[in-house]
Amino acid sequence: HIYEGAKEASAAIAKTIATLIREKQQQGKPCVLGLATGSSPRLLYAELVRMHKEEGLSFQNVISFNLDEYYPIDADALQSYNRFMHSNLFDHVDIRRENIHIPDGTIAKDQVKAHCAAYEEKIEKAGGIDLQILGIGNNGHIGFNEPGSSLFSKTRLITLDNSTRLANSFEFQTVSQVPRLAITMGIQTILKAKKIILMAWGPLKAPVVQLAAEGAVTEQIPASLLQQHDDVSFFMDTAAGSEL
Ligand code: GLP
Question: What's the predicted TM-score (pTM) here?
Fold first, then answer.
């Protein structure tokens, strides 16, 4: 889906999410959303907040699972994805606090494995992810699944690529302050979602969007593994879709 700009595309994604939330509400069921961070979903979350405030869209039945978090990082650090989600979405809507799940960047290293396994279990227990929202890294990562991530990977601790640390360094004072590790849902975790929407804006994303959508299916471009899913949509602005 190629739109004139990120704003129009984000509004269309917000509509899809709102429809799903309302459908599930009518069925008396929870709506399980997989959520992303980074700059790409900012307009989407702003639109969802607007729909909550102006159109009465309720998040009471929403259960959310975030894709990833730096490790280690304080939950309230400026760069933490925990903080990002609260300030861009959760603090402004009526989602129940107990329904929010974000990988914990503060736990002790010897507990990370158990934390990741428990995260997977919580997703299963919630009935699986109904809709997974994704951004895409310049190197093709989804969540923090860097190139080389296995198709069968689950939520785990991962070493960030230098290119990712460099790309994300604008959020920190220097690149050396960007954590070297992160906790991320795996490729398998993502592919288990019933529906997937990937967002990409701007000319810098054009080459990787082309590889992901039209190139070979390879673990070297993790987003290309999405081609194996039967309900995945890419939402782009004209610049990000210009090499398709
Ligand atoms: C970040 C995040 C991803 C995000 C991607 C693109 O490092 N871990 O979840 O999708 O890189 O970020 P942005 O949306 O800022 O371009």
Answer: 0.98
